[in-house]
Design a protein that fits this description.
The complex is a heterodimer.
Chain A (H helix, E strand, L loop, with lengths): L20 E3 L4 E2 H9 L5 H8 L12 H12 L20 H4 L11
Antiparallel strand pairs in A: 1-2
Helix pairs in contact in A: 1-3
Chain B lengths: L1 E8 L3 H12 L4 E4 L28 H15 L2 E3 L2 E7 L3 E6 L2 E12 L3 E3 L12 E3 H10 L7 E5 L3 H12 L3 E7 L8 H8 L5 E3 L1 E7 L6 E6 L12 E3 L3 E4 L3 E3 L2 H5 L4 E4 L4 E4 L12 E3 L9 H18 L5 H18 L24 H6 L4 H4 L11 E5 L9 H5 L5 E2 L9 E2 L10 H5 L5 E9 L2 E8 L10 E5 L5 E11 L8 E8 L8 E4 L3
Parallel strand pairs in B: 1-2, 1-6, 2-3, 6-19, 8-15, 9-10, 9-15, 10-11
Antiparallel strand pairs in B: 4-5, 5-6, 7-16, 12-13, 13-14, 17-18, 20-23, 21-22, 23-24, 24-27, 25-26, 25-28, 26-27
Helix pairs in contact in B: 1-2, 1-7, 3-4, 4-5, 7-8
The chains are: A mainly alpha, B alpha/beta.
Amino acid sequence: MINDRNREIGTFVPAADDDMIVCRCEEITKGEIRRAVHEGMYTITEIRRYLRCGMGLCQGQTCARLVKGIVARELKISPAQLEPASSRAPMRPTEMHILANEEKEGKRDE
Amino acid sequence: MKRYDLIVVGAGPSGLSAAIAAAGKGLKTVVFDENERPGGQLFKQIHKFFGSKEHKAKIRGFVIGQELLEEADQAGVEVVLNATVIGLYQDKEIVVRTGETVHHYKANAIIIATGASENMVTFDGWTLPGVIGAGAAQTMMNLHGVRPGKRVLMLGSGNVGLVVSFQLLQCGCEVAALVDAAPKIGGYGVHAAKVARTGVPFYLSHTIVKAEGTDHVTGVTIAEVDAHFQFIPGTEKHFDVDTICVAVGLSPMSQLLKMAGCQMEDNPKKGGQVPVCDEHGATSVPGIFVAGDVSGIEEASSAMIEGRMAGIRASEYLGYMQQEEEKSSLDQLDHALDGLRQGMFAPANRGRNITETEEGIPISENLLTHGFVAEDEIERFPGVTRSIGVHPVMECTQNIPCNPCQDACARHCIRIGEKITSLPAVNPENTCIGCGLCVASCSGQAIFLVNEQSEEGYATVTLPYEFLPLPEKGEKGVALGRDGQEVCSAQVVEVRTSPTFDKTNLLTMKVPAAFAMKARFYRKKAQ
């Protein structure tokens, strides 16, 4: 089971490319993501909440696949086995004042 | 809240095709697209498409885009641009952002055609300015008229990497190298060959070690990788480049479907997270359909057919079409789609090691590893023959679904036959008149007209030429071989352009007779 926290995944082994930025928007490195797995974050949802990777301006458009690959390798599973992050509105970054500025009846064709 | 019969998300090839099909059946249809221009990737595709007539073969992508827009307009489709769909909710309600406001719309059926986004790879320095996606390079060149860089290294040898490399050459960039970690070229051999013959070296089983530079790319180091994709020490190669282009595949942008509660699957063969759907795009949620790359990465040609399928399914779902009519329409489209999904690059053949053509001819290994067919391999293919007088030489050596050359020749010198993937063969009974229509019709730029003995000791070679400025008649230069290396001196004896050639110019050069089957590209002598 992927989410079985008793599963032995070994200890964190530092690597030469741990300083490499993976999520550009939130500036999260490969090392931080790998370490998070060893700190018990086994799902993409947990990783996102813990590190905020994939929650910046591009909403994971660039790094989601990369993060998935890194987490899967650390857990020694296939990336396809990892549930992707939840999809929520707004699907694209939207400023709060716009989200709150809903079109009113009668003003339909501005 | 405004209501429609059908809302289509995405105005690319599949979304527009879906909207056209549905609006044609009387559905009140709207298409939302977040971009300022419609057409998705079509308007960046300046090359001629493959396929047969029904797939719009030998038409350039952006022209197909214009045709689709006109069709959509005639069918009464409403296309709303700069409109970002930010949510898809229960009962087919969507929220769209336009400008500074959000709007709610509702429809009885939804077609999601949001396409895909480019994948990235990480390497030391990948965040430096100058490392860009191949799609970004296309946007800069073909939409905005901006040259992405002076000297570029391309990572990825799939069709995107190959096609964009050629476009970079066309817009005046130097392509320093084409690199792929895989041991074999992923895209069509003809796309590779037209890049290789200009002199671009291919490095297979190589990938990027690091991008160099402090605040922008100034160079790149690549190295060979072993079977486990680990760098082999001592194999490093350095290139001075200002741009690194990454073309390492696409991922479906399927988040809206997941949000809507459609059953999803992670399918590596389709490029990642895709909705579970039937062969005509119906998802697990009744009334929500998909088409194009969002349901599995393929070509624009297949996306257009999938779009029509989804449009028809939605029409039937809402009662605008009888089941029998739906079935006959879908059967036709199934047939068209099936035609495109044939040959060596068919989805079913992905990952398979193909060593022979359908005709039983051994595949050119050199083409797969260096981008060009070697001299000792080329004459085993049926399109490459020798004869007296001017005749076509078709260096088409892989089974791909494409046949415009057969129709282009009014003299029936070229034979493909019933099977669209068969290699073109020369019909020796008919005489070539040298019109060059076949040369211009070949989307892979793989056809040449050769006269092995145009005059004592000399031969002429006519080749497709899509670079500016056009060489002038009488100009002297050098002929390059398939590998892009100089083989002999050459003189331009004719440059033909014609509206029927659709911007594929025909350059005829005179070379010493011994090089008739070797000279395949022309370069002006450096001043």
